Protein: Transposase
Organism: Candidatus Uhrbacteria bacterium GW2011_GWC2_53_7
Amino acid sequence: MKTPTPLLTLGTHYEQLLGLVPPWKVTEVIIDTTALTVVIHVEATGEQALSCPQCATPCPRYDHREERSWRHLDTMQFTTTIVARIPRVSCLEHGIISTTTPWAHDLARFTLLFERFAIDVLHAAASVTQAKKILKLSWDQFHLIQTRAVARGLERRECEPIAHVGVDEKSFLKGHHYASLATDIDKG
């Protein structure tokens, strides 16, 4: 059995919880007990080369983008946000380009873990309205999370022939409004 590692600082605690590895490091954690927020400042430290996100070639650092924030899973009842300045690298092939973060997609304002949790809440909730209320999100924010989840699912989808297809039509609303459902009978 693995021996638990004692925590030395709050920064170390969040580095372990976020699964951060060098060059990423928690530099500051701000807890506001009045606003019920936790803000985790993360930085790409050190001078080692970072990889170009396009070709994975190690490249020298160029500079950093402006500070950005991402909503993360709540820390108990505290809304948690990750704040960082994303480094840019100078790639010979692709020019000056922003690196990726291990916690979120390029343009997202939510971490991957938060987006996954939001979809789980949607599955458990009675409606999108209820799910967005639980997570304190707007319609637009929830729609973007759903759109990215569908895109990730389509990327993972295997395109193989379907041997047995089941087809059903469901009527909805008044009149003749139908939705056709096609299902892979073998996989469910």
